[in-house]
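name: query_chain
kind: protein
chains: 1
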Amino acid sequence: MTSAMVFAAGRGTRMRPLTDDRPKAMVRVAGRPLIDHALDQVATCAPVAVNAHHFADRLIAHLHGRDVAILRETPTLLETGGGLRNALPALGAGPVLTMNADAAWTGPRACDTLTAAWDPARMDGLLLMVPKHRVTGKAGDDFTLGPDGRLSRGACRMTYTGAGIVKTDLLGGITEDVFSLWRIWTPMLAAGTLFGVEHPGRWADVGAPGAIAPAEAMLAAYA
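structure:
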């Protein structure tokens, strides 16, 4: 079973004014906070850690009693790479499934698709991708998914969903406290060890107030 890290510590700047009194992960989509949508996607993972920073007490209260480790990042927001490294004592050894808490999903759970495709003999990282015609509310593309499953930059046709698996031993050589996952993805791309797998459902970015209604329409149409 793979452990999971859900990133929920961001300030939610693009989501203002909804984040003027709550963390972005507590913004509701289809009647449920975004953090609950994210935790659904890692439901078969254990252990699970969630980081908190902006209005951390509200997120901590919402998660009270659940089987998740909550890591309050204070005073400094560590970003995705730093947040993952900070959570390693709670997650244990081995690869970790990482998940952003600002999306809505249809189709199979991210954890099921990722763990089925994960091959540690070939991969240092595996990102869950979705074709742009099944994306709601996100402009632009991120990667090209090659015929052998390797990811590259260039004629980008696939969007990264915010979910993936990474080998955490690659974090050890980074001296900074605050850094993004790109610090380990970049050498993986160069070495040909960053792979992708396609999410067969639909996916919506929920990073701004105007993205909520389209995401809810997607969920209603493809429930």
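note: Residues 79-91 form the longest helix (13 residues).
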